[in-house]
Specification:
The protein has 18 helices and 17 strands. By secondary structure, it is α/β, with parallel strands linked by helices. The relative contact order is 0.10.
Length: 420
């Protein structure tokens, strides 16, 4: 196993990979763990590698927390290999228990099918699908999991798994240590994920599974099962846990998840999420979430003071263009420019004039139409759903409105301006 390390000054300690695939992943900061990096490097030099990542369709959209995995598949294709998007139509009926505090609610087959169809549109933004040797394909593990017979499965697959070892995985220990229920249904998830890798190796000649660091144990299980049942050598790559500079979880905000599709989150809010990145995150996010050349990224992340805001705008434009299209990114950037540079409404943002120059947050929320009453506005504040120029507010106070418009946000979809 080889690891991508970081020096104390933040610079990456590069492993000397020869293949374009592993060099690309290493240089941009995707690699946390690799199984037999030398052998994978040699394979990537000599052949096209089909590689997969699994996604459970638990909602109509994925969110930014899944974006690093989507970008991994994009990098795989950019390096001349074949991405396989595995939708968990089968495993989604169970739910991945990894590092979850409680069991997920079970979904109907109809809900899962609708979610899969909705999520596919997201991947079509990031990957090229088709029938070519490096074109992406989307497959559903329900195609084989739904047909399994219990007794044959136990005999043929179950014998390769040790309960002792499964109980030692961090994802399982977390639930047991907290004395939280872990159903037998969920406990089977890791066996089914390993079976997925083996099935894809057999059906699609898949040689690589990628995923977040929390999937390491599941990936290793799949590698061992493929070796034992097929005699095939397959590999795994995991990414580091992506957190923000302030220690927060990537893609989680006070107003909820940052969804990738337009129906769940408007393009302007998606753009603003990237624009509001912490100064220390800009360079890392540009490497992970855009296609900008590394030398241009180095120039942008070296900017200091107010100039770093230009790098954040580039990040927002590039990330939004990739996910929502150039037109949506341009419209969001123009709305932001007019709002914050010219003090105009920009787009369709509601505006409330404040002739006195100051107003209480409760009155502002009611005046903008974000709350039907002062009582509701007070509750929204207490819930932490209100932001002023991107900064969360929990208590009522008077805000000063000067020559520049003040942005008031409620949740992830409601934004307005206070003008003087």
């Amino acid at each position: 196993m080889t690891m991508g390390l970081r020096h104390a000054n933040g610079a990456r300690a590069m492993t000397e990979y020869r293949s374009e695939l592993l060099r690309l992943l290493d240089e941009r900061g995707y690699i946390h763990q690799v199984t037999d990096g030398a052998a994978l490097d040699a394979l990537a030099l000599s052949s096209v590698i089909p590689g997969y990542i699994g996604f459970d369709p638990t909602a109509p959209s994925l969110h930014v927390g899944s974006l690093v995995q989507i970008m991994l598949l994009r990098r795989l294709q950019q390096a001349g290999h074949k991405p396989i998007v595995l939708m968990g139509g089968g495993t989604g009926k169970i739910g991945d228990p990894s590092f979850k505090d409680e069991a997920r609610k079970l979904m109907t087959t109809e809900t899962i099918a609708a979610n899969v169809a909705s999520i596919r549109r997201i991947f079509e933004r990031f990957l090229t699908f088709g029938d070519g040797p490096t074109d992406a394909v989307m497959v559903d593990n329900a195609d084989w999991l739904d047909k399994l017979e219990y007794i044959p499965f136990l005999r043929e697959v179950g014998q390769h798994f040790s309960i002792n070892r499964m109980l030692s995985f961090d994802s399982v220990k977390l639930r047991l240590d907290r004395e939280q229920s872990l159903s037998f249904l969920e406990f089977n998830y890791m066996i089914l994920q390993a079976y997925d890798f083996m099935e894809l190796a057999k059906r699609r000649q898949c040689r690589l599974q990628m995923g977040g660091s929390d999937q390491w144990g599941n990936i290793v299980n799949g590698i061992e099962l493929s070796r034992r049942m097929l005699g095939t050598e397959v590999f795994g790559v995991t990414t580091p846990l992506i957190t923000t500079a302030d220690g927060g979880k990537m893609g989680k905000t006070m107003s909820g998840a940052v969804w990738l599709n337009e129906e769940s989150l408007p393009a302007y809010d998606y753009w603003q999420f990237w624009r509001n990145s912490h100064d220390k995150d800009v360079g890392r996010f540009l490497r992970l979430f855009t296609d900008l050349p590394l030398d241009e990224i180095a120039r942008l992340e070296a900017l200091e003071g107010q100039e770093i805001n230009q790098a954040k705008i580039v990040l927002a434009n590039e990330a939004t263009t990739m996910c929502r299209g150039a037109e949506a990114a341009a419209a969001a950037a123009e709305t932001a420019r007019r709002t914050f540079e010219e003090g105009q409404a920009g787009g369709d943002l509601p505006t409330l004039a404040v002739p006195e120059g100051s107003i209480s947050l409760i009155d502002a929320l009611v005046g903008l139409g974000f709350a039907a009453s002062k009582g509701e506005a007070k509750r929204k504040l207490a819930e932490g759903a209100v932001r002023v120029d991107g900064e969360p507010e929990k208590d009522d106070r008077r805000v000063e409105v000067g020559a520049t418009a003040l942005k008031i946000s409620l949740g992830k979809k409601k934004h307005g301006l206070l003008t003087h």
